[in-house]
Amino acid sequence: MTAYRYRALNNEGKLVKGVLEGDSERQVRTQLRGRSLRPVEVSQATGATGKTEGLRLPLITPRVGVAELALVTRQLATLVQSNLPLDECLQAAAEQSRKPRTKGLLLQVRSRVAEGHTLAYAMGEFPLVFSEMYRAMVNAGEHAGYLGPVLEQLADYTEQRQYTGQKLKMAMIYPFILMGVAVAVVVALMVFVVPELVGIFAHTSRELPTLTVMLIAASDFFRDYGLWVFAGLVVAAIVFKRLLRNPVRRKRWHQLLLRIPGISRVVIAVDTARFASTLSILMASGVPLLESLRIAGQVLTNLVLRDESAEVAERVQEGSSLHRALGQSGHFPPMMIHMVASGETSGELETMLERSATNQERELEMTLGTVMSLFEPLMVVVMGVMVLTIVLAILLPIFDLNTMVR
């Protein structure tokens, strides 16, 4: 059976949408009429472009957010550990979903499982939703007979990833709002307030102070070219983003980021923590070390670090220990290398990798907290200096006029 999206009119003439399973569009339309709905449009939840070795290629891949994926994974883990058949677990998870895209996705996966395919194979049709790491863990859990606990681990991992991402976003919201307000206030003063105030000096023949002349010039510039400057910045950002689509340019940019003090520390902490956490959860799920290293390397966003992770996998394949291979890369944190060495010696590599990821995430939170605590008062000081400069530029000619009157 295949999942179909539909749009239909109810008895009140209102348009309703949803997802149904059926063998064909005609059968779905019959089901809709049995529910007193008049079909308007019925189409597959994911269109097919053809078949390759029995695998239907989706034309439109549904996008599922991290929060939604974490919720679905947690539901599947709970249902699977209740010893329900897998297709019933997927059906129940689909019925609990409120989003049509997620529901259609789960029904498509269920239809493939009902045909006799494994869950990992069915999820492979949606690589943008279920990452390679996700599918590898599911595959290992199915073969080992521990799908429920593996899904539980995946749910924990996905929820932790969502929590970390939200924490970073929340930490950045206030500084960006503060910066935006500061820029908006200064631009408003320069465009609307300053021209009105300096107009009183237009009839005087005395030479204005240098600071006032500079303020008038800046005000004229913002008033005449402000929109052009803003448009230029937007265009520059778009062009820069398009240039970074080229892997060579993107790698050079990533190399530059790793050379900038402060920024490099944050980039390395974020990526290596994700690498250690992914490697830990893969190995704990029974995925072989070399395969785990290859998959964990794909979660790294920095291309330089991703290449180094591939070199680490090659050294391990040649017989080197993991901590020695990481140490030769030059970018992985020393604390992580020491903890990996301890894990290899004690036989608790997965646990030490998890602890290493936790330590790096805590260190990153502390670093960002320190930076943000310094940034906020710094922005207030900068804002005060700029307003003070504007006020002085306006008051200096007034003082000169008072002196001339005396």
TrEMBL record:
Signal peptide positions are none
Q: Tell me, which GO biological process terms does this entry list?
A: protein secretion by the type II secretion system
Q: Which GO terms describe its cellular component?
A: plasma membrane; type II protein secretion system complex
Q: Which domain of life is it from?
A: Bacteria
Q: Where is the Type II secretion system protein GspF domain?
A: 73-195, 275-397
Q: Where in the cell is it found?
A: Cell inner membrane
- What residue intervals traverse the membrane? 171-194, 225-244, 378-399
- Provide an example Pfam family for this protein: T2SSF
Q: Molecular function terms in GO for this entry? A: metal ion binding
Q: What UniProt keywords apply to this chain's record, in alphabetical order?
A: Calcium, Cell inner membrane, Cell membrane, Membrane, Metal-binding, Protein transport, Transmembrane, Transmembrane helix, Transport
**Membrane topology according to the record:** Multi-pass membrane protein
InterPro entries cross-referenced by the UniProt entry: GspF/PilC, T2SS_GspF, T2SS_GspF/T4SS_PilC_CS, T2SS_GspF_dom, T2SS_GspF_sf
Q: Which PANTHER family match?
A: GENERAL SECRETION PATHWAY PROTEIN, TYPE II SECRETION SYSTEM PROTEIN F-RELATED
Its annotated function is as follows:
Component of the type II secretion system inner membrane complex required for the energy-dependent secretion of extracellular factors such as proteases and toxins from the periplasm.
Instruction: Give the similarity note.
Output: Belongs to the GSP F family.
Protein name according to UniProt: General secretion pathway protein F
Native organism: Parahalioglobus pacificus
Instruction: Quote the gene name from the UniProt entry.
Output: xcpS
